[in-house]
Amino acid sequence: MGAGMNRTWLLWLPLAVVAFIGGLAIYGLVVPKDDMVHSAMVGRKLPEFALPPATVGVAGLSNRDLADGKPRLLNIFASWCIPCKAEAPYLEALKKSGAEIDAIAIRDKPEDVAAFLAEFGNPFRRIGSDNEMAVQLKLGSSGVPETYVIGGDGTILYQHIGDIRAEHVPMLLEKLREAQ
Amino acid sequence: MMWRLLLLASVLLLAAVPQESMAQGSGPTPELANRQLTNPAQEKAATQVMHALRCIQCQGQSIADSDAPMAATMRAEVRQQIADGKKPDAIRQWMIERYGEWVSFEPDMKGSGLLLWAAPLLLLLLGLFMARGLFRRKS
Amino acid sequence: MIAETGLAALWLAAAMALLQLVGGLTLLRGEGKLTPLIKPAALVQGALCVVSFASLMWLFYVTDLSVLLVASNSHIDKPLIFKLAGTWGNHEGSMLLWVSVLSLSGAAIALLEKRIDTRTLNATLAVQAFVALGFFAFLLFSSNPFERLVPAPVEGAGLNPLLQDIGLAFHPPTLYIGYVGLSVAFSFAVAAMLTGQVGPAFARAMRPWVLGAWIFLTVGITAGSYWAYYELGWGGWWFWDPVENASLMPWLAATALLHSVSVLATRNALRAWTIMLALVAFAMSMAGTFLVRSGILTSVHAFAVDPERGSFILALMLMYTSLAFLVFATRIGTVKQGEPFQIVSREGGIVANNIFLSVILAIVLIGTLYPLAAETMGDKISVGPPYFNKATAPIALLLMVALLLGPMLRWRRDELKRHKYWLVGFFAISLWTGVAIWRFVPGVGVFPILGLALSLALAIAAWVPLKGRKLLRTPLPVFGMVVAHFGLAVSVFGMAAESGFSRETLTALAPGESAKVADWQVKLDDVRPVVGDNWVAIEGQLIARNGDKKFILRPQSRQFYRPEQQTSEAALLTRWNGQLYAVIAQPDENGDGRWQVRLWWKPFVTFIWFGGLLVALGGAISLLGRMFRRPKKPAVNKWAQA
Predict the structure, then answer these.
(1) CB proximity under 8 Å: A 7-66 to C
(2) Which of C272, C294, C380 has its CB closest to that of A2?
(3) How far is the CA of A101 from the CAs of A45, A64, A76, A85, in angstroms?
(4) From C12, C37, C85, C104, which residue has the greatest number of CB atoms within 10 Å?
(5) How much of chain C, in percent, has pLDDT values that exceed 70?
(6) What is the CATH number of domain B18-131?
(7) Based on C-alpha coordinates, what's the Rg of chain B?
(8) What pTM did the predictor assign?
(9) C549 and C461 share a domain?
(10) What are the phi and psi torsion angles at C525 (to 5°)?
């Protein structure tokens, strides 16, 4: 890289690169990082699955149960997951407001699920057991808890990642209304 | 001596029923998560796919290098699909359909990924361009 | 009292740095009144930093718990070596170490450097002080290591037990010392641009610092790679993780710089290149630190994330690098073109080296930042090992081809036909190796084949520069070069062998059952519990047989509490021709009393790190040669015969 007149623009290239990287770094620091892995299945039909009941006295869950013409919520939870305990009252509130909720329990044992339901209530219509996380994988779900809004025809309309808090309840009800 | 035996017994208990049950639940690991395919060529193809897929539950590891339960499930899925005769690229696409481009460690050679793949060649050309003034012709 | 002394010394050292900077600014408009003060100020600054660092070390030695840093990072019951290592095993202490080494380097330059003119020397010290000032400000305003804690606790919190590892105690300072060396090169480069003295004298003054920094970085990366290999338990030795990339990039820049600075010192060519690389190397070392601390990129090794401090380092990095590149853009035009050379010449070879290394560096940088750039567009993508391997391997192989020939070429101009026998020989060795592997070992990838072929040729080519020399009269730097290039061949051989010929067996075994991997028959003999300080583990006893030889391996699966974490402690069996790598996992939930066992046979994998150490050793030999051969005072045109 000599000092040839025709190539003076090259001399400014490093400065431009620094400015670009600096801009990127500032963006990275300022804009909060979205660590969530969103499902790419939103907008598509539910995958086919049929799960056995998660504990005695509840019904298992298949994709056909979720496509019965009525929009509903699909909650992914586990008895060993602490945020799932925190969101239990809001699921209860959603149910009281008329939402129908199905659930999938991840890597859980029947007795643990039963104890969880006894302690935190059971707002669910059906609970399938996904021991190997196979259905979770098909749904593009990355953890517990997550809540999906499912249209009456079995289309995944929305994915909520993390526990449901008070402010999410009206939002989820709104999504369900839109799905009508 | 007695307390030592007790200690060992409790350790065995602790270890055998890992605290995993608190953090990640417990369930059977899918058969193919940690079993190789019997056909070496298929296993090799599966290993390559696994190294190119990002674990959903951990920080920046591939599913081949992770102990997370979800990584195990994904490994089993990859091996199953390979065993079913699916092409590696189709499996990658299957994962991308579920988790988006993020799940693949290898961006596609299209759109913004094109620039990434063209970079080595472009950079080499830039280097040669910058260096050309240094050389003197043979006189 | 000791803490206050340390803090006062730090403030005074900062004042000295300020004095040097002001002196340097007056220098820009000819000799100022303050100019004569620059050298003494540099010496005093160095001394004050020693006092400050020694104070902190003393506080850790006596475990003075009234100091916040000691209380939160040490414990009265810790072994002495970890108490002392605790001094720099935390953010504040490591920054103090950094700035202390930086100041000591400044003092060493002020005391010892006789090769460059006074003006450039003073300017160098002023730039050095400018860099130091930023870190002083960082320490004093946002990371004060001497802060008191009221009331003082009784015990101290202790260091994260996972980090209580002798390797980890010395790994970060190794990299930091490397970074400091690069900052010295940076100061030389900026000063030489400002005074217009970009020539062989400047290059000779800068070279030992670059070499020293490069040795430390080489050792640091080699050790870091081995650590990841045995600690992460998946048999990989390089994951292209952002934190690993952050340490690789300064090394790549330093390697390129090391070569081009030699050309400038010997042949007075590649002036602008050398300056440019010096700036890039320093920028990369700061960018590396920033990436590690800021947490803006997702990494496996996220130990030390702190966005606020990350922003401080970012501000410093942007300030120094943009100022330096501004000077570059405006001043480098005044630097005259260096001596000309033909494309087939030693210089030509080194230009090839510089281009290939810079391209690899740029690929790593682009790949590392790409996900962040995509995020600004709303895309979430990942760039990982498959990309980095495919994009960098061809360039690295080109680099090796250049390396086969480069060192045996004459300076300025040469003819390829002078070396035709060597060329044909290397080509024949590579071709024969490549075809043999391709023909007789099915399923080996193209990069491992080429890597093996070229590394064998390079293992011979590396020694050619010694041909026809009287060994006792050969300068040490030539030996250094030979050893380093041979080390590279060894390392590449290891990488290619490992990636092309590793064998893996994943299985579940009940005690008494066996599995096979490569030529090894491995039996799970027994599984038993083990208790550690803050963990419990299951330990498998594996009996590995190869022929009539029998070995025992004991991998563990550890369960830590506080913080709750599960780790695999791999067991390694090292043979001359590879390693047997065994991992045991928690019992299989499928519930038939079997244990997950992962086995790898990794042929010649240890060559990767032995090679790395050889490369560093070559650097050390070269550095010795540079330090103990007092060069005659360089006359203006002497370089021509060097």
Answers:
(1) 8, 11-12, 14-15, 18-19, 21-22, 24-29, 31, 33-35, 37-38
(2) C272
(3) 18, 14, 10, 16
(4) C85
(5) 92
(6) 1.10.8.640
(7) 24
(8) 0.91
(9) no
(10) -85, -45
